[in-house]
């Protein structure tokens, strides 16, 4: 059982343990590397976000001459939030240097503050994905006190003339700086006022510097957490190698930690901020009192749930394989660089993760509540970046989108993949194996057309992140084209497939046209494929099927039926198929319902278009050679629904009344056709068939 230590117990325990102790590596139960750490992929949810473009921010460039093409974007906006002054203004930081405000009515952006110019020539943004003007957050009482806080990176002469406040990494090459700003008039559209530096941290590497800073939105005046500033501090890109390999686990240094400070206090070592007395390590010799939680590589984004029990969640970017979501609490240790996710990380192996040691429980690491892995291609150079990175994200508790309530929303930065997990399912597990299921979200424009974030951003690398307004309504923003979208609704995948035509009571033989009539039986209440088909000349496609000839050919179609696989479960590759969009023997769609999901032809959605069947479902993982979980694994009857929107190309397949599809696809190759039933090379049966759709013109 996970030990959720109170702050008091942590203090007592600290007196009994050696200072700055780090759990030693222990012998693993199995010394072999784990080739696929998280075999289960995010599952389709059948739900999509309706996105409305609200702004495109000005084009910008980093300082200097970047050589990394990933820095050469439209701009480098990385967050959107609402100024807490009831004005309705949104704020957006650009890593290249500007802080923008967006008008409440028009959402027209204008520069509120030029951070790069303020700190020139020391301001640095030309190398490292997170370097530059990293983040901004406004004091919850900004309307009265005018205070807000920023982070930025400095290099060059600053390394000679300015000194970090906390222990810097050896060979420091960059400074992460936190500033407090005080606006003379909080209502003004451009900043005028003063600023002061409150904290400076030295980093050896140009990545994983200061990330998000923020205040707890649940804290109210008088609460112990009100006005306390949380800072996510990365490992400087060196948490697993060289001189700084132990920094994330070293409680005497700030790198690889979440810090918690009081900007209004003065009892820190530099006298510019306070160290809250209720921090877990405050007052302990040899340990930084500023530390709230530790063991982090790139603690990219964190957020508090504004409902439920107000938990604090962290989206943590991994090294080899694991993108993860953790709960943070005082003294939490998520394990880096001894662990990556719930796996053993070895600093001498850039290519693999390993099982946990038998005595792992004694270290009390805070393992992920949810996670996904990188699934690199077989020819991937494991010393390079595969292009996966999580960004949270928050639990939606707003009023406008009831379908999203209670869901922790997050993205993959690079691909623009939209995902969520249920907050209620994110539970602690000491072994790290019982994680919450992650689900994919689709995306739609305001006309209801399905889109991807890559299509909306106009680039394969989206650089996507979430933000929200003061009411908790979600926004998405992309560096690729500098645009911001508001989530204005939700939509079910392939909704509206059922049209005005209804075909039922069609079990008689006269209503069906089989490929090989002698292999079929029609007792009146079922359609039975009694003998397996044989391969026929032409493209690779299902061997045997029967087409429903009752009613018209349909464009958009909904099929409801019950199916059964009659081939014994001892046969590993059993299947039946449901056909739709059938035009002729070499032009149709089918969904393959199988007990196997490990090879390309099994358990998915396919198109036959004058050539060998083509797999089109979005669940096929070519890198790992597996698809969605097997749709049918026994010899019982199972309900199946197939929804197909001919105009948008959306297809969704459901089994046994689930609200979430097992397969989804998007293809507009075939406009209309008939439905059917059969098998690739097995036997099975169908009953209770109802077809609804729109007749082809």
Automatic annotation (TrEMBL):
<dbReference type="InterPro" id="IPR011042">
    <property type="entry name" value="6-blade_b-propeller_TolB-like"/>
</dbReference>
<protein>
    <submittedName>
        <fullName>Glucose/arabinose dehydrogenase</fullName>
    </submittedName>
</protein>
<dbReference type="InterPro" id="IPR012938">
    <property type="entry name" value="Glc/Sorbosone_DH"/>
</dbReference>
<dbReference type="InterPro" id="IPR011041">
    <property type="entry name" value="Quinoprot_gluc/sorb_DH_b-prop"/>
</dbReference>
<dbReference type="Pfam" id="PF07995">
    <property type="entry name" value="GSDH"/>
</dbReference>
<keyword id="KW-0732">Signal</keyword>
<feature type="domain" description="Glucose/Sorbosone dehydrogenase">
    <location>
        <begin position="88"/>
        <end position="424"/>
    </location>
</feature>
<feature type="signal peptide">
    <location>
        <begin position="1"/>
        <end position="28"/>
    </location>
</feature>
């Amino acid at each position: 059982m996970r030990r959720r230590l109170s702050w008091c117990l942590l203090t007592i325990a600290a007196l009994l343990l050696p200072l700055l102790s780090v759990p030693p590596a222990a012998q693993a139960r199995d010394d072999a590397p784990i080739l696929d750490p998280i075999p289960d992929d995010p599952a389709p949810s059948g739900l999509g976000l309706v996105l409305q473009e609200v702004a495109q921010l000005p084009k910008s460039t980093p300082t200097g001459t970047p050589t990394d093409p990933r820095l050469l974007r439209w701009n480098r906006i990385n967050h959107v939030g609402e100024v807490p002054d009831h004005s309705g203004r949104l704020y957006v930081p650009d890593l290249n240097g500007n802080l923008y405000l967006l008008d409440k009515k028009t959402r027209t952006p204008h520069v509120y503050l030029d951070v790069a110019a303020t700190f020139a020539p020391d301001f640095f943004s030309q190398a490292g994905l997170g370097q530059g003007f990293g983040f901004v957050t406004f004091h919850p009482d900004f309307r009265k006190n005018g205070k807000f806080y920023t982070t930025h990176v400095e290099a060059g002469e600053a390394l000679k003339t300015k000194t970090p406040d906390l222990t810097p990494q050896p060979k420091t090459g960059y400074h992460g700086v936190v500033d407090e700003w005080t606006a003379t008039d909080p209502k003004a559209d451009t900043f005028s006022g003063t600023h002061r530096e409150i904290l400076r941290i030295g980093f050896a590497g140009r990545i994983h510097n200061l990330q998000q800073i923020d205040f707890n939105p649940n804290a109210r005046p008088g609460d112990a957490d009100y006005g306390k500033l949380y800072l996510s501090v990365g490992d400087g890109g060196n948490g697993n190698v060289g001189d700084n390999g132990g920094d994330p686990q070293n409680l005497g240094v700030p790198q690889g930690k979440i810090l918690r400070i009081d900007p209004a206090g003065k009892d820190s070592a530099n006298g510019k901020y306070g160290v809250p007395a209720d921090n877990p390590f405050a007052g302990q010799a040899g340990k930084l009192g500023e530390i709230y939680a530790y063991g982090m590589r790139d603690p990219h984004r964190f957020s508090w749930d504004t409902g439920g029990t107000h938990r604090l969640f962290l989206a943590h970017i991994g090294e080899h394989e694991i993108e993860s979501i953790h709960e943070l609490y005082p003294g939490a240790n998520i394990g880096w660089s001894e662990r990556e996710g719930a796996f053993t990380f070895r600093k001498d192996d850039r290519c693999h993760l390993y099982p946990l040691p038998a005595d792992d429980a004694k270290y009390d690491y805070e393992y992920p509540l949810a996670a996904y892995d990188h699934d690199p291609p077989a020819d991937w150079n494991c010393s390079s970046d595969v292009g996966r990175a999580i960004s949270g994200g928050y639990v939606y508790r707003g009023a406008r989108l009831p379908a999203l309530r209670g869901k922790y929303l997050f993205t993959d930065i690079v691909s623009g993949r939209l995902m969520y997990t249920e907050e209620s399912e994110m539970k602690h597990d000491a072994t790290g194996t019982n994680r919450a299921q992650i689900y994919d979200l689709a995306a739609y424009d305001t006309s209801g057309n399905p889109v991807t974030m890559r299509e909306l951003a106009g680039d394969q690398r989206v650089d996507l992140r979430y933000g929200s307004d003061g009411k908790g309504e979600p926004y998405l923003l992309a560096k690729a084209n500098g645009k911001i979208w508001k989530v204005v609704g939700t939509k079910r995948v392939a909704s509206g497939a059922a049209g005005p035509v209804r075909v039922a009571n069609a079990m008689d033989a006269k209503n069906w046209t089989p490929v090989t009539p002698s292999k079929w039986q029609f007792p009146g209440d079922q359609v039975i494929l009694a003998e397996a088909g044989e391969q026929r000349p032409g493209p690779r496609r299902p061997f045997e099927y029967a087409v429903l000839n009752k009613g018209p050919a349909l464009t958009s179609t909904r099929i409801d039926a019950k199916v059964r696989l009659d081939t014994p479960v001892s046969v590993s590759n059993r299947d039946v198929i449901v056909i739709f969009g059938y035009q002729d023997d070499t032009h149709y769609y089918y969904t393959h319902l199988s007990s196997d999901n490990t090879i390309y032809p099994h358990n998915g959605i396919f198109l036959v278009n004058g050539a060998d069947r083509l797999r089109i479902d979005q669940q096929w993982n070519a890198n790992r050679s597996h698809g969605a979980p097997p749709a049918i694994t026994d010899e019982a009857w199972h309900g199946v629904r197939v929804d197909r929107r001919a105009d948008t190309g959306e297809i969704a397949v459901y089994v046994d009344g689930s609200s979430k599809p097992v397969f989804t696809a998007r293809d507009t190759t075939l406009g209309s056709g008939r439905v059917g039933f059969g098998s690739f090379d097995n036997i099975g049966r169908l009953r209770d068939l109802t077809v609804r759709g729109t007749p082809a013109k």
